[in-house]
Write a structure and sequence with these properties.
- This protein has 1 helix and 10 strands; from the N terminus they run ββββββαββββ.
- The longest helix is centred in the middle third of the chain and has 4 residues.
- The chain is globular and about 35 Å long.
Length: about 110
């Protein structure tokens, strides 16, 4: 099983979004528990939000504090929920961000 990674691209500026706080939660015993916290680097990346040895099957959330990046953002945070299943090999979740919208997908 691989680790969990992400990157953030600012579509309005056409460049990586640096210094976006990203928090990772795992659903454990009926509650969301924060298990990692990072900021995107100069390339808008968090190459290893969670290392492979710490990833297990279950439900996860990445929360991007986009309001810290764009003061006038309509979305002060973006929550991406996803499932990790046994046998899957890659969990890269990009966020494409603009002032009035965002999208995400399972990256490669």
């Amino acid at each position: 099983m691989s680790g969990i990674s992400t990157h953030v691209l600012d579509l309005s500026l056409g460049k990586p979004a640096a210094n976006v706080p990203v928090r990772l939660y795992r659903f454990e015993f009926g509650h969301w528990v924060e298990i990692a916290s990072r900021d995107t680097d100069a390339d808008g990346r968090c190459d290893e939000v969670l290392p492979p040895q710490d990833v297990s099957a279950g439900s996860y959330r990445l929360i991007f504090q986009t309001g810290n990046y764009q003061d006038a953002s309509f979305y002060p945070e973006v929550i991406v929920s996803f499932s990790v299943v046994p046998g899957s090999t890659h969990y890269h979740l990009p966020l494409l961000l603009s002032q009035h919208g965002y999208t995400t997908y399972r990256g490669s």
